[in-house]
């Protein structure tokens, strides 16, 4: 194989946007980058496990493993490679990760890592036949709710859905994650072929987004692991609460596509009764923050919601971003929580730029 170098760039995402639990995703302008070189003739990295050297800078640099069998991005790439009978990375693969996305904050860091990992497997494996739609199948074998990953892969403001599968394919999708991404084997290759995804698991549709609308992300300093934020949700819901969300989800994509935006309609369309009320046990002040920020009292504001599984709060707005962020930061301060904040915009999906 000839030497090659390329950059994979994948946006972070905010899922749900209020009522769209496990359905709606928004790709946002903060990007995980993988700077990859594959240089077969050199010998410097030949002794790295699985032929892959990882270096890392940015969010999580003190905690993310640089072992390619452990690191989420390279484990996912290996899954794609092993489904195509390639047991390791090409000789002398170097992946330099630049990650500005805070971990466990509701900005889809894990989904972005999985999307970038699948793309990494495709590129280093020379698997050019894998379309974006087929990559989505691989991604959904790992991250099983499609909203964050659909946005990170395809970009923009998306609705995502899973197609009914045959009973055999359903069984394959429900294979435990531990079989898709097996536990590290200490560098020993068991030779097992991982389960391949069925074809056509997940789909997406792009919604319009009014250009004036920006996303203000208020990011508390503490993490809420998504798995924990899903455990607090009930198994069953009152019918009225489901109807409440269905009414709002029918409005949301239309309301956010209209220019000029209608603040009252958007505010209403961003309300939720299926996940936010239950997650306030993990995020001090959540209900008060969501209820205290209204379009009547805050010029420029369109609506407020929990970003993904939290704890980040997403405020959609057309102006006065700093003032909106300050008000929410003050509310968190009442609970002794400090925050950072950013103004983000809808972003394009995952790209690969070849430099050699
Ligand atoms: N760049 C990365 N490299 C390797 N592992 C990562 C990376 N980003 C995230 N992860 C893994 O994902 C975990 C965070 O995932 P989690 O689903 O809890 O939060 P999130 O994806 O940030 O939030 P949400 O799904 O609510 O938007 C991290 O603790 C880490 O194990
Ligand atoms: N829809 C998911 C997004 C977080 O990954 C949730 O709210 O749990």
Automatic annotation (TrEMBL):
Source organism superkingdom: Eukaryota
UniProt pathway annotation: Amino-acid biosynthesis; L-threonine biosynthesis; L-threonine from L-aspartate: step 4/5
EC number: 2.7.1.39
UniProt domain GHMP kinase N-terminal: residue ranges: 71-156
GHMP kinase C-terminal domain residues: 269-332
Catalyzed reactions per annotation: L-homoserine + ATP = O-phospho-L-homoserine + ADP + H(+)
TM annotation in the entry: none
GO terms for MF: homoserine kinase activity
Keyword terms, alphabetized: Amino-acid biosynthesis, ATP-binding, Kinase, Lipid biosynthesis, Lipid metabolism, Nucleotide-binding, Steroid biosynthesis, Steroid metabolism, Sterol biosynthesis, Sterol metabolism, Threonine biosynthesis, Transferase
Keyword Nucleotide-binding in record: yes
Family, as annotated: Belongs to the GHMP kinase family. Homoserine kinase subfamily.
NCBIfam families in the cross-refs: thrB (TIGR00191)
HAMAP family referenced in this protein's UniProt entry, alphabetically: Homoser_kinase
Protein name: Homoserine kinase
Originating gene: THR1_1
